[in-house]
Amino acid sequence: MDKPWSGRFKGETDALVEAFTESVSFDKRLWHEDIEGSIAHAMMLASCGIISEEEAGIIINGLREIAFDIEDGKFTFDPKLEDVHMNIETELVKRVGEAGKKLHTARSRNDQIALDLRLHVRKSLKEIRTVLTDYMSAIIEKASQLTDTIIPGMTHLQFAQPISFGHHLLAYFEMAARDVARIDDSLKHMNVSPLGAAALAGTPHPIDRFQTAAKLGFDWPARNSMDAVSDRDFALDAAYVCSLIMMHLSRLAEEIIIWNSQTYGLVELPDSYTTGSSIMPQKKNPDVAELVRGKTGRTYGNLISLLTLMKGLPLAYNKDMQEDKPPVFDSIDTTMSSIVLMTGLIKGVEVKKEVAEAALEKGFITATDIADYLASKGMPFRDAHNITGRIISWLIGTGRTIAEMGMEDYRSFSDMFGNDVLEYVKPSSSVDRRKSFGGTARKNVRDSIKKAKRLLEKMKN
Among all residues, which ones are annotated catalytic? Predict the structure, then answer.
């Protein structure tokens, strides 16, 4: 089979070279974008008088027929034709004849692939944004259900201070909100069209790049033809955004794994999001959370792969850039599925409130409140901290908890303790006193949920 570029060559391409250099095995995924770009290009060529309106109509109809066949699974991509572009163009010429040969006027595969990948990344980031807002909605709903549930907040994986579980979950809403903002920022920066830059230098044909940019939903055409065909910043942006989203999901996955362990036993995961053991019948494993945690490393690897790919490339296009697509596709697919699965997991997780209540009796979780109490009575905080440390040391030695302390016990350490300290050190009181902006007080959490709902509504619109 003659290749579209075979005119300059006398010999056949070695079969191993064909297999090594083909990209259609993965870039056929871009068929929809390739046809979309080709239709816009054909319409522009006709409006500029480079081809006739009749020829444009023939080309566009042929492209749409090919699209229907691909959607129906009736189209076979041939690796000998190297890539998605040559497969579609060769089929177009086969179907419509001479008019099809004119489609490639004033463009190159270099600006064609830059366009296709950019369109695909733009569409994919918008889809990720949509499922991300669904995930945020699930967090809000679960946080609303758990606002009054108090659990131990941890630092260094040790019980630190009591918090509202709803407050804890809303931290992940904030992470996701930043992810949405990063997607929006990336979409803004990538929304320029490379089409019409041709191989690297532009074209002598009287084209209208602003027209094709507008037809394809871009803000403007790329200003420099060499940058247009060699820029992959948009792909790196997508890989980076995906890496950050996955990092945030992985942190939540890790916490779910910890909460689900027998050591903590704080949550019950839905059967539909867990698996069993082939040998231990009692096991119920948090495999979804573990795989999200594990797949995060893949997205990091994809980002590094792209950065390494691009770091030494001279202008303009180089064949190395064929390898930009697999890591981008993988990051997009991994992130999409991970968000969807974590959304389902959040919806289905159940908190064992009796376990949470029992946990609050461990680890002297309101120790800071004792120091804060003394400070509120006028004692310098460092002195209050020292006295509280002595109290905790005494409690450890006697095997008692803060809840088991009586007034005589408190007064043996300082006569500044009053009867109100007994209420002051209760976990619920501790939580509700933390009314500072962004604090865990349950009133704050309810206000935060209202604001989160408004923000999410704005994001969706």
Answer: 156, 277
